[in-house]
Every structure is written in structure tokens, then in C-alpha cells.
Design goal:
The chain is an alpha+beta fold and 173 residues long. 21% of the residues lie in helices and 51% in strands. It contains three helices and nine strands, in the order αααβββββββββ.
């Protein structure tokens, strides 16, 4: 699992530096094949929903937007989690995220045995009445200690690919 995460980060790093518009179709094709391979390479088994409940430290939260704006720019960000950065999934279907100075309140529901839909209700103090869609994530490698959430979808801004690697929060006394 750790090798897969490193490979994904390497691919994102390479794609970040490729900005020529005439290579966009090739990039989208490669990324699409890669995502299908990564998300579909393992036999899907039902996720034990209770394993997801609890507090998770952020290893990294990486987003790649392909084909943004009239210049078809690629935008990449990779947030590396610190001590106070976490995802907290409650048994009531709430999700609280702290990334740096950002604090988000969201809701999540399982839409299949290995996919969750996440809806944002507030982002950094700004409320979204009725919620704003964050996306449907595929759950990969969920154990008592690690999980990867993956998203690949088309948006009005282009194609969004997001991979979030989490590890079980360790309480330090």
C-alpha cells in the first residue's frame, strides 16, 4: 500500500511539470488508465464500516486538476499532514477535517461496500445551506491502521483526481 502511495505521488509530481497543451490528451489518457488500474487492481471486498469510524491523522492529501481554464493548465497540490491535522469520522455520519488552519464540517454516507459520498456543510467558517458536494470516494486498503480515499471525476474546471492517505491517530499522553 505504501509503495502504491509513493507511486501516485511520483506520477503527480511528473504531471505537475508537464504543462504543454498539445500533450493534454496524452496526460488525461495516462492518468485515466492509471486511476482505473490503481482503483481497480485489487479485488473489492466489503468495507467494515465501523473500521472507518474514529480519528485519522493525515499522511497527505494530494489533488491534481487537469485542464483548468482556457489555457488548460494543470494544478497540483499536496498537503502533508502535521500533528494536529486529521479526519474524524463519527458513527453518526459526520466528518470533521483539520488541515493546517482550515477546519471543515462534513457528512458522509456509504453508497456501496467500498465507496462513500462526502458532503461539505462548512469550510473554514463559511456555511453551505443544504451542503455542497465534495464527491464520492473509493475506499482502498482500509485496516485498523491505514486507509486511502480516492476520487476521480470531471468537474466544470476539468478533471479532478484526489488521493488522501490516512493513518490511525495515535494519542500521545
Amino acid at each position: 500500500m505504501e509503495t502504491r502511495s509513493k507511486l501516485v505521488l511520483q506520477v503527480f509530481s511528473i504531471l505537475h511539470y508537464i504543462t504543454l497543451r498539445n500533450k493534454m490528451k496524452i496526460i488525461i489518457g495516462i492518468v485515466s488508465v492509471f486511476i482505473v488500474f490503481v482503483m481497480g487492481s485489487c479485488e473489492k471486498s466489503p468495507v467494515n464500516e465501523s473500521l472507518l469510524t474514529g480519528r485519522w491523522s493525515i499522511i497527505n492529501d494530494s489533488t491534481l486538476l487537469l485542464g483548468v481554464g482556457p489555457l488548460q493548465t494543470n494544478i497540483h497540490s499536496n498537503f502533508i499532514g502535521g500533528l494536529a491535522d486529521d479526519y474524524d469520522f463519527t458513527s453518526e455520519g459526520n466528518l470533521y477535517i483539520r488541515e493546517g488552519t482550515n477546519f471543515d464540517t462534513l457528512a458522509y454516507t456509504f453508497v456501496s461496500t467500498n465507496r462513500i459520498n462526502i458532503i461539505a456543510f462548512s469550510y473554514n467558517g463559511t456555511r453551505f445551506p443544504g451542503g455542497a458536494g465534495m464527491g464520492t470516494f473509493t475506499i482502498e486498503g482500509l485496516t485498523g491502521n491505514n486507509v486511502t480515499l480516492g476520487l476521480s471525476e470531471l468537474t466544470p474546471d476539468g478533471k479532478e483526481i484526489r488521493i488522501i492517505n490516512l493513518k490511525r491517530y495515535e494519542y500521545i499522553y
